[in-house]
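Lay summary. Proteins are chains of building blocks that fold into shapes, and those shapes determine what they do. In this project we predict the shape from the chain. Here is one chain we studied, written as its sequence of building blocks.
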Amino acid sequence: MSNPTASNPVKVLCVDDDPHILASLRRQLHRGYDVTTVASGQDGLRALRELGPFAVIVADLRMPGMDGIAFFERAQSVSPSTVRILLTGQADLEAAIEAINEGHIFRFLRKPCPPLVLLKSVRAAAEQYALIHAERVLLAETLLGCVRVLSDVLALTNPAAFGRALRVQEYVGQVADDFNLSNRWELEIPALLSQIGWITLPSETVDKIHQSEELSDSEQEMVEHLPQVTAELLGNIPRLESVHRILSYQDKLYSGEGRPVDDVRGEKIPFGSRVLRIALDYDSLEMRGMSAAEAIETMNSREGWYDPDILHRFAMRRGQSIPHLRIKKVDLSHLEPEMVFDEDVRTSKGVFLIPRGQRVTSGLIRRLRNLSPTAGLQSSFTVRITTEEGIEA
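And here is the predicted shape, written in a compact code that computers can read:
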């Protein structure tokens, strides 16, 4: 990162409503950086989603519509790793303090800014981004190891909840791709851990949920508090603060209603929480037997529940991916990773092992082979296989 003139130059986003300022910024930075310029905060957010990830943002404080403070607040949820520099001609100390406190600003520069000062600030910001990125990679690898252990515990104690977690992880991963997010793990880890609270439910309640049986009032209350239980279970694990916050707000509606009861609403809700809410609700509707189209139609009718931009992209993705599936019967010796079970797997005595919709893994194949001689498994399994040819019955 110390050499921004390398073959992969650092990406810098400049946001200012003055075209002359944008042209000046591009002239000063273009030799060492891959510079994108936009004239408004809305265009800046769009660029972050569609053209990112950016290492550095340089934005003006005083812009019509969405000022620099509001832009940086929203940019924080879209691209939290990007380092932010505020550039303004206003000698406004209070605005600068607010920007630093609310927008997580790395540098505050006055206009007109000498080229050397600008270049030094952008270089320092790029180096800061490199440090953040390296730490996040290390953190992701460490946390993923811990998460895999917790997921294995969930798989053994509650296969249905584990299968749901895997499906939801796949959905949020697709959203991360659609928004071009560099830190997929910040969405995928909360998805994998979103069902960990199910280990606290009595086995009888779990069976009733899986069989779509009516719950008692006390059981319904336990289920409704699962997101809070999950957040509490993970709350004391170091370096999981962002995951904890996402899980704490997974039940929050976009309108601001729901748990936790506070003033957080709209884009103030963590981005991961908004994605997770959509993925979980879609999975619930699909598991009730709804088609993808019916589930999306139901979600579209729920006014104020979801982030409209995320829901739109999620709906588009469902329309693109659904036709590329083939359903077939395979025996145990022909099960392969990445296949998806299209039916529940049970022993001959009816003991539930694997939920419909769970992806086949190497570990799961080994488990079935170990169980096969004694558990009385069926000889073949109905699975879904992703193809490029379309649907085959």
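What the prediction tells us: Residues 158-322 form a domain with the Hypothetical protein af1432 fold (CATH 1.10.3210.10).
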